[in-house]
Write a structure and sequence with these properties.
about 100 residues; globular
Amino acid sequence: MVHFEAATKVEDQILYSEPPLWYYPVRESLGQAYLAAGRPADAEQAYRKDLELFPGNVWSVFGLLQAQRAQGKWADAAATDAVYRKVAAKADVTLTGSRF
């Protein structure tokens, strides 16, 4: 987790460009690591920050949903599930986490 946390700080300093200079989505991995470590509140923060930067990112929406469920935030999870269903409507894989 320490490396993912450090990588998000580096990633935040990279200048915006299209396509991105840094293509690896660190916060998706950080959120998944937090969930695996039993830290769903930290995972929620990581996914929310990623969604600020990349609205509608299906991976982070799914991770956020998992984090909310893990915390028993059922109303929030229901709202996030509706968003997830919309952004994943044309997905060609079934997600099981915010990273493969």
